[in-house]
Q: What sequence folds into this?
């Protein structure tokens, strides 16, 4: 049986695992990357942010990866990689669909929020078609010397602090790293990989975490949601529907569909991400918290549930009247609870990237940015000169920070679910995320992997966040006769409490819910 002995073994070849493999290989490390599936493949987690783009640019510059630089903005992406599908994301758009009342001129101003993230189209963020971008970075890694196995079964074990992976590959592996120590090469069949360090980028608890018996602490998370999603063709643009209702969209600072569009529903929310080929990634996130006061229904098929959820809102009914699924081939996808959190994210000879250590929810588009943060930190740790003691210290700090950051995201997300069905409270609570994100974007080191993600290590911010959640509950459960006053009181307190991190004019009443000064500074 052929034996490979790389410096680092990586499980999973999504964009996070492939990017880390690429960085390590370009720096002279020998790397094996193994995946049970193969590219291209359908995946969600598609919306970038200024923090994501800035972190990717920093890594491209630091590790001499010029191929990745064009992916940091929509304009350069379209010029350099026109065949790599993406979508334009100028900001975050929110519409209120919590009632069965249709959108009209009379009620519209109170049922929308637009928060700019980019100053113009050239420097816009992007929606990533993950099947394209994951395969693109995977191929870069392989061309840079990463030995890759796809569409394979494997068995993981650890013997005397060394990781042993038995791989049964039905596809022909690509073993392009001439410096890797190995016995013989075969086109397919069984291989043995022995490595002193392993990274789990699978997004699953069944790899390293299971092998090591790392405790699960998902039960401690506050967010509890499930999902129903697919990619569609023929879904009408929101802007067109608004124009049909005689609503003036000219006051918007960007086209409202060039964004991560959020349709806030009676028991959750819907994401809509439009690609440049006019297909649409769309999915419902359904609140399943035990405390949620929601009507529980059962459905015989995912399609039955999808149709019911679309029919509840006249706006969505019109939008999806002529829509049909184009991705994936298997049709609508549904999940059980999507939250998870491990008690540890790294040890002396292993590490897990963000999506493996834990995940909360697509809300706020934190996934790509947080994955890039964790890859940046791990690359720095694995490439640092010095003794094992120093690396172990770095891995401990990495683990502690990552777990705490996931908990912070949990707090920022769960409050939005608690606010439903009050669209006003939803928007107010969302300002906490924008305060954390924009205050990082405004600072020179705000997107560095060395900085805590979304102010998670800022005790003042976290303390304010906890008090805000208590006050949100008071406003949310106020007597109906006093609810307007309760919401006004919450807004007044929150505006003052967020002030230390509000550098972009959040809560400015003259904006009338249309924020343009929130756009991130241009980073060349």
A:
């Amino acid at each position: 049986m052929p034996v490979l002995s790389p410096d680092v073994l990586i499980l999973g070849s999504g964009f996070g695992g492939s990017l880390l493999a690429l960085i390590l290989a370009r720096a002279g490390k020998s790397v094996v990357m193994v995946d049970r599936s193969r590219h291209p493949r359908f995946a969600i987690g598609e919306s970038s942010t200024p923090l994501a783009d800035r972190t990717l640019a920093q890594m491209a510059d630091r590790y001499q990866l010029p191929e990745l630089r064009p992916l940091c903005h929509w304009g350069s992406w379209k010029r350099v990689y026109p065949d790599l599908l993406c979508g334009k994301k100028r900001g975050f758009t929110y519409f209120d669909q919590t009632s069965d009342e249709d959108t009209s001129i009379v009620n519209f101003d109170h049922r929308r929020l637009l928060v700019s993230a980019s100053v113009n189209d050239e420097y816009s963020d992007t929606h990533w078609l993950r099947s394209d971008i994951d395969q693109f970075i995977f191929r870069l890694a392989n061309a840079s010397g990463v030995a890759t196995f796809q569409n394979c079964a494997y068995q993981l074990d650890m013997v005397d602090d060394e990781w042993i992976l038995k791989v049964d590959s039905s596809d022909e592996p690509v073993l392009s790293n001439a410096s890797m120590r190995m016995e013989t090469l075969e086109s397919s069949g069984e291989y043995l990989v022995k490595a002193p360090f392993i990274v789990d980028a699978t997004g699953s608890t069944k790899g390293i975490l299971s092998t090591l018996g790392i405790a699960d602490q998902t039960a401690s998370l506050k967010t509890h949601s499930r999902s129903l999603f697919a990619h569609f063709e023929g879904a009408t643009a929101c802007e067109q529907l608004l124009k049909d209702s005689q609503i003036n969209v000219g006051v918007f600072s960007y086209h409202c569909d060039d964004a991560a569009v959020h349709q806030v529903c009676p028991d959750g929310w819907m994401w809509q991400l439009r690609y440049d080929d006019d297909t649409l990634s769309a999915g419902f996130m359904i609140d399943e918290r035990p405390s949620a006061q929601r009507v529980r229904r059962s459905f015989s098929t995912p399609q039955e549930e999808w149709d019911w959820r679309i029919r509840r809102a006249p706006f969505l009914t019109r939008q999806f009247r002529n829509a049909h699924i184009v991705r994936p081939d298997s049709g609508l996808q549904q999940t059980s609870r999507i939250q998870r959190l491990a008690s540890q994210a790294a040890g002396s000879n292993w590490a897990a990237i963000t999506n493996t250590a834990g995940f909360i929810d697509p809300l706020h588009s934190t996934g790509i940015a947080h994955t890039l943060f964790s890859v940046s930190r791990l690359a720095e740790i694995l490439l640092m000169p010095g003794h094992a003691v120093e690396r172990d210290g770095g891995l401990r700090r990495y683990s502690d920070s990552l777990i705490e950051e996931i908990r912070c995201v949990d707090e920022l997300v769960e409050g939005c679910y608690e606010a439903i069905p009050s669209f006003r409270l939803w928007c107010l609570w969302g300002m906490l995320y924008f305060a954390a994100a924009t205050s990082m974007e405004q600072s020179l080191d705000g997107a560095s992997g060395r900085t805590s993600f979304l102010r998670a290590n800022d005790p003042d911010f976290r303390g304010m966040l906890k008090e805000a959640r208590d006050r949100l509950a008071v406003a949310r459960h106020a007597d109906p006769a006093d609810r307007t006053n309760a919401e006004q009181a919450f807004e007044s307190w929150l505006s003052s409490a967020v002030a230390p991190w509000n550098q972009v004019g959040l809560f400015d009443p003259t904006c009338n819910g249309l924020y343009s000064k929130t756009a991130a500074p241009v980073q060349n």
